[in-house]
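Give me the fold.
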Amino acid sequence: INTPYGGEAVETANGYEVINTPEFLAHEGFRTHTSYLNLHWNNNVIDRWKAAHFSGKDYEYDGTKIDTLTGFKFIDDHLGYRFVLRESWLPDTVFAGEKLKGKLKIQNVGFGNLTQKRNAKLYFVTDECKSETLSEEGESILSHEELKNVDFRDVHSRTIKVEDGDTTMTFDGTNEIDFEVEVPQKPGSFSLYLLVDDVYFANEMDTLVHPVSPNAVPLGSFFLTSKKNSDAIPSGRALKQNK
């Protein structure tokens, strides 16, 4: 499940069924959780993938609707893991002394899974510190909490099985993650970001101006208050993304 798996893209020997096609790999890649293929072997196979239109259908990679979609593009974008934040749920308001409880829906649309454990952190960003960025040492003045009980190696890709000649998908790669973390001491409005070390999500994000890091994913916002009878509490928001 989490072991790097791959090899060579080879030609088909005479008399054998041709299975070195992107359409076949669209199923086989999820069965074996393919994480890598040698780009330089076999050049004839690679060139055919680059020239051929991908006729399969796979979420946003629908060859029947995208004329410019090549088989190479499909394979290149699916080798290894590929995380997409589909939805996040946050409360509008958190009161002093409480913990922030939330839920993430993350889909791994890649063939493979993360092979090494990566630290995951939630960053709390206010309007005042949105101009700050991570330092060269990787530290930040922004408040953050580690997700110690979350292991992104468990954000698995879809599962495809073949039984008696029938191909079935038993899991579509959509994973739900619950979290509960401490909040900053100072009341105010906070935007929440998820940062997983050395992991880039496939969501479209503004990487030019970013308060945390170019690979941090915005999850939404909430208001932290010390008064339970507050008359005016800004509304938080949850995100629902498609990519």
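Residues 22-32 form the longest helix (11 residues).
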